[in-house]
Specification:
By secondary structure, the protein is of the alpha+beta class. The chain folds into two domains: 125 residues, no CATH class; 45 residues, no CATH class. The protein is built from five helices and three strands. It starts with 31 loop residues before the first helix and ends with a helix.
Length: 188
Amino acid sequence: MEETPDGTPVGVDDPYEFAGRCDHLTGDGRCRFALERAGDDPGFAAERRRDDYACLVADEDADWRDCPHYRSTTDAKECVRCGLTEVRIAHDERRPLIEEHHLSYGEHGSDADGAREPGDCGADRSLTHEITVGLCRWCHTKVHRSFARVDDDASPDPEAVAERESRRSDELGELGFSAASERFGDEG
């Protein structure tokens, strides 16, 4: 199983099985990285420019692993392990139910100075891409502190369900109408 830089498990053998669409991919199939950040990797940008900025993976023989700038991060709205959905209330400072969980950190292909070499996955195809998924706090803890896997058939923890329902109750309470005089005790 893959591990974090600290040595804790990330819950998957192959992060690319959970990888989604590249964050740099535009709606029309072009590479936003090459369009907006050409100075960060001029060779890559020049290659994409010659191909009208088409996504490198648009070629049917290519894979997300082949792109040096592939990145897939989550919107963190639902736990991929147990299915718990996020409930956020504006101006509420409680900790989110769903957290971003790194399957791959994008730092494994570093050179001696710590800089990543674009496109270099090494002979062993070590990971060089940032890949994240959403996990509820409870599943996140289980994955890092045990041998729980992201793809386990799991149900939401009872404590997680209780916290979500508490937030839904607060959310419904916000929808109700009461006059300011009733809320603040003004007798006017």
